[in-house]
Design brief:
The chain has 110 residues and is an all-alpha fold. Helices cover 57% and strands 0% of the residues. It is elongated and about 70 Å long. It is a single-pass membrane protein.
Amino acid sequence: MGLLPDEAKVLPPPGIVNRNSVWFGLCGWATAMLHNSLNRRPALKAGVHRQALFITVGWFIGYHLTKYENYKYATLDRDMNEYIRLHPNEFPEKERKTFAEIVEPFHPIR
């Protein structure tokens, strides 16, 4: 089961590169750099394997947070559309206007 219920499996998966994955991957890398600095090691050269591990863990967390975020937004959209469908009197159909009816006529000054 995990974080997401079974109904979340019908949603399309997010892209591998998304804002949360990149952000958490960079936060993982910064955490490894900070850990090296606090232990008085060379920040970039020491523990490259640990840097790669922290980036991977951050990327994984960001990917799954994006899946959870997409699920939450999908449930909100579903509930909102269901409410609109059940209460049509609160959401009357608006009169359609063409673009020409909205824009004022243009008269160039010469």
